[in-house]
């Protein structure tokens, strides 16, 4: 298995230098500076969260669009464009409009998700080499995107080498996946399963059925190698942000003897932003996409 939890950490470390800004304030531990950049980062995070459609009332949005369509003193051409926009909105939001529901924005939950994100990256960047960590006065500030010139100078060659490593691993994993999937009774593009929500996994006779947002996959005469007992959180019927959800972070396929082994790195994300990574591995004689 190439896409392991450790590889996931390495991939994040390889991008550590991308988002950083040089700051003299990051050369020493400064609580006031940390609080300032924390507030700035949280405000940006909160703004992005507020833009999520799950917090918007689809009925109210449609009412406002209708008002624009019916405004007097606009040209026929402009009205036609607004009608087209309305039709597009209805088509894209059919399920949301039918449900007529939306989530109230929860300030405390938003803060919890932001803090969980900071803790995740704090743990990841704690894995940097000691030589680099010694140049980081406050890792919390580093996580928020600020570092000393000395730290960034050390980071650049380190991250450049890691990026080469990450690229090699991805190329090898995808080459093996491409080779294996060509031998399936019907080709399936496993790379398209990355970042796809997973809704459930069930034993059906001698087969194992994997339900995802990209469709349903049946592993023929299969066995579960890894992941037994782990819970898959089905978010297919709800858009509630507080409900846990499971997503495939990475997928790879290998041909081993006369069987296929599919390895998935799954991420369970909870409403407060906490994440748990786990492995799901299934081995079978064939894999079929049953809803084609």
| Major β-sheet annotation | 8 strands, antiparallel
Structural class: alpha+beta
Low-confidence stretches: none
**Which strand order does the major sheet show?**
6-9-8-7-3-4-5-10
Helix content: 40-55%
What's the quaternary structure here? single chain
What's the end-to-end separation, in Å?
A: 28 Å
Outline type: flat
The sequence of SSEs as H and E is HEHHHHHHHEHEEEEEEEE
The tally of beta strands, per DSSP, is: 10
Note the total helix count. Answer: 9
> What percentage of amino acids are in beta strands?
15-25%
Radius of gyration of CA atoms, rounded to a whole number: 24 Å
Overall pLDDT, averaged?
91
What are the defining features of this structure?
9 helices, 10 strands, two-stranded parallel ribbon, eight-stranded antiparallel β-sheet, 292 residues, alpha+beta
Topology:
Elements: H1 5-14, E1 21-22, H2 31-50, H3 58-69, H4 76-92, H5 94-99, H6 107-125, H7 130-133, H8 139-143, E2 146-147, H9 149-181, E3 196-204, E4 207-212, E5 215-220, E6 223-226, E7 245-256, E8 259-269, E9 275-284, E10 286-289
Parallel strand pairs: 1-2
Antiparallel strand pairs: 3-4, 3-7, 4-5, 5-10, 6-9, 7-8, 8-9
How would you explain this protein's 3D organization?
This protein is of the alpha+beta class. The protein has nine helices and ten strands. The chain has helices spanning 5-14, 31-50, 58-69, 76-92, 94-99, 107-125, 130-133, 139-143, 149-181, and strands at residues 21-22, 146-147, 196-204, 207-212, 215-220, 223-226, 245-256, 259-269, 275-284, 286-289. The chain has an eight-stranded antiparallel sheet with strand order 6-9-8-7-3-4-5-10. Helix 1 packs across helix 9, helix 2 crosses helix 6 and helix 3 (58-69) runs antiparallel to helix 4 (76-92). The longest helix is centred in the middle third of the chain and has 33 residues, at 149-181. The radius of gyration is 24 Å and the shape is flat. The two termini are 28 Å apart.
